[in-house]
Amino acid sequence: MTLNTPRRLALAVLAATAFSACASGPFVNSTKHKATMTQQKQQVVALLKAIETGEGAPVAVINHNKYIQHNLGAADGLAGFGALLQALPKGSAKVNTVRVFHDGEFVFTHTDYNFFGPKVGFDIFRFEDGKIVEHWDNLQEPPKAPNPSGRTMIDGPTQSSGLEVTAANKKLVAAFVDDILVNGRMEKLTGYFDGDNYVQHNPQIADGLSGLGKALEAMAKAGVTMKYSRVHKVLGEGDFVLVVSEGQFAGKPTSFYDLFRVQNGKIAEHWDTIEAIPPRAEWKNANGKF
């Protein structure tokens, strides 16, 4: 897309603001004064909100010398991020970050977007020396109606609890994905759940293991296959665990982001986004989806 003069000017201002703020702005953090967990969450939420508002200051949290972009629709680096923003129709962007979590060097979010149309997305940001140096995401267009149980892709609990069991919950969810989604060991399925008590936010699936079973049966009848082949990340905070995987859906290379809520050692709730991975010839950066 060819940007007109005002858009080129706006992009230049955005980049200049970011570069200047990186040196002297409010989010500067030395290695002795790294951002706290809460500060990094706030910085990420502000950065995402800037997509809507156009505010330049939050971009200062990005290290423009090292920023690696895994959204395949954006060119690499801070300039690629700015160019993507400038391509948005004026006033069209809306950003409502519903969930934000922290795990080590990563902050990950769950956001209701209008970004070239309505989207629900997970974003993952990696921090190094107090700055964002890498970004991954997965976006899916939401349906107009709730799922068979009346739930949306974004509603439900938003705050984590039980930080002391984060590691155990990550281990549980990683085992579930490996057993069930990657290797199809369905005989182990019921062991991960408290009976039929399972809240589902996938737009096509009803609550409970019974709802999951019906959806899988319907997919099989329609000849639609879903296969997880590799898990790339397992991130968690308390009772929330996000798993990033790749595989195939309906015969196409696909990225799966699955967010689980664990309660009393069992999987209690699930949100997800499913995004097709475009052919390599269409990638705007060479970093790969994962």
UniProtKB/TrEMBL annotation:
Pfam families: SnoaL_2 (PF12680). Transmembrane segments: none annotated. This is SnoaL-like domain-containing protein. InterPro entries: Cyclase_SnoaL-like, NTF2-like_dom_sf, SnoaL-like. Residues 1-23 form the signal peptide. Keywords: Signal. One of its GO terms (biological process) is polyketide metabolic process. Residues 51-135, 173-270 form the SnoaL-like domain.
